[in-house]
Amino acid sequence: MNPNAQIVFDNLLNRRSVRQFQPGSLSAEQIDLLLRAADAAPSAGNLKSRHLHAVTQRSDLEFVLSHIYSARISANHATFRNVAAMILLCADIPHCRQRYRRGALYAIQDASLAGQNILLLAHALGLGGCWIGQVNGHALLPHFGLPEHLKLVGLIALGHPAETA
Ligand SMILES: Cc1cc2nc3c(=O)[nH]c(=O)nc-3n(C[C@H](O)[C@H](O)[C@H](O)COP(=O)(O)O)c2cc1C
Prior knowledge:
By secondary structure, the chain is of the alpha+beta class. It has helices at 3-14, 28-39, 58-65, 71-75, 93-97, 103-124, 137-143, and strands at residues 21-22, 50-55, 85-91, 128-132, 151-161. The protein has a single domain (3-161), classed as NADH Oxidase, CATH 3.40.109.10.
C-alpha cells in the first residue's frame, strides 16, 4: 500500500466514537474544515439533498443535549457534557424527490455520507466525534430556525477527546 493510502486506511481503522470531552471550543477554521469535508461527500445526482447546521454556543449545546434520549446520557451525565459542537445532519427529502422516486432514501444517504466525512476528518484532526441517533428532532429543528420539511437524520457530537479512542 502506498504511504498516502496507508494514512487514509489507518485513519479509517483507528477512528472510534468519543463521548467524553475535555472543556474547550473548536475554532472557526476547524468547523469550516469539517463542513467542507461534509460538502465533499457524494450525493445522489449531485443534488446534495442535505442541510447541516453547526451548533457551538454553550446554551444551544445544552438545549441539544436535553433532546438526546440515549440511555448513556441518563445513566452518566458526564457523557457529551463538554461537547464543543453539535452538527445537525438533516435530509432534504422533498428536494431529492423532485428528481428521484427513491428520494427519501437517497436524501438520508446524502446526509449520512456527509456525517461520515465529518467523523473521519475530526479523527484526523485529533478531535473526537460521535454519531447520535437517539435524538428527538421535533423540537430541535424549529429552535434553530430550520425548515419543517427537513428530516433530522442524526447529530454529530464533536470536541476535544477526554478518552483514548
Ligand atoms: C446510526 C447510528 C446511530 C448511533 N446512535 C448513537 C447514540 O444515540 N448514542 C451514542 O452514544 N452512540 C451512537 N452511535 C455510535 C455507535 O454506538 C458506535 O458507532 C458503535 O458502537 C461502533 O463504535 P465505534 O464508532 O467506536 O467504532 C450511533 C451510530 C450510528 C451509525
